[in-house]
Write a structure and sequence with these properties.
single chain; Alpha-Beta Plaits; 7 helices; 43% helix; 19% strand; binds inosine-5'-diphosphate; binds magnesium ion
Length: 134
């Protein structure tokens, strides 16, 4: 069994897509084991996106992810990380295939509805970052 971390980003929450995102994850056969609404502090956002800190869009990205409430979930199942990445689609909505969450609901970066961990190791770090210790 593997765990991953999923976040419905501010514009996804504002557009009423929390249920749609969770529905697709549950429909796939994965289990939602933790669920919370929250607002990301700028310092936590900067840590979460530290791998992008030298990009020209970093400031805009931190502003975006802290601009409103987000929905956060821990998702469990066999190969949960890769399954959820498949469900959400490519980072750029222009390259995300129709049928994926980003392919179906987003048009341009940085606005792509949802975040999901990119590896089991990252997932554990992100679960701790956003949900704290067990
Ligand atoms: P991921 O969310 O698919 O894992 P990352 O490369 O980790 O993609 O980027 C994190 C987030 O930063 C993306 O989901 C997107 O919101 C934003 N982002 C990535 N690349 C760009 C870009 O070229 N311009 C603007 N925003 C971007
Ligand atoms: Mg990423």
């Amino acid at each position: 069994m593997e765990r991953t971390f999923v976040m419905v980003k501010p514009e996804g929450v504002q557009r009423g897509l929390i249920g749609e995102v969770l529905r697709r994850i549950e429909q796939k056969g994965l289990r939602i084991t933790r669920l919370a609404m929250g607002r990301i502090e700028p310092a936590v956002a900067a840590e979460h996106y530290a791998h992008l800190k030298d990009k020209p869009f970093f400031g805009e990205l931190v502003e975006y992810i802290t601009s409103g409430p987000v929905a956060m979930a821990v998702v469990e199942g066999p190969n949960a990380v890769r399954h959820v990445r498949n469900l959400i689609g490519a980072t750029n909505p222009l390259e995300a295939a129709p049928g994926t969450i980003r392919g179906d609901f987003a048009v341009e970066l940085p606005y792509n509805i949802v975040h999901a961990s990119d590896s089991p190791e990252t997932a554990e770090i992100e679960i701790k970052r956003f949900f704290g210790a067990e």
